[in-house]
Amino acid sequence: MKSLVYALWDPCKSVWETVTGTIGWIxxxxxxxxxxxxxxxxxxxxxxxxxxSLALWALGRIGPEGLVKSKQVLIKELSNSFWKVRxxxxxxxxxxxx
Length: 98
Known about the structure:
Elements: H1 2-7, H2 13-26, H3 35-43, H4 49-62, H5 67-77, H6 83-95
Helix pairs in contact: 2-4, 3-4, 3-5, 4-6, 5-6
């Protein structure tokens, strides 16, 4: 998991897409190691919508355990200009439970 987290800072965006998707598929408990990096990736203003959507999806897969750190990012992305990002943020919030 440490290698995946490190790869999130690779200069190539296609690497970010692959890594965020992989972290999401791995899920808990290992994905908690990537929580801060996923939140930081979502906070980037100029981020590619596919990368941001995958990062939001991975946050949703972490579940309620990550809600404290990711809540503000998830709420902010509900008003993103790209429909894919808004939809994924909504799904991530719903995956975290009531």
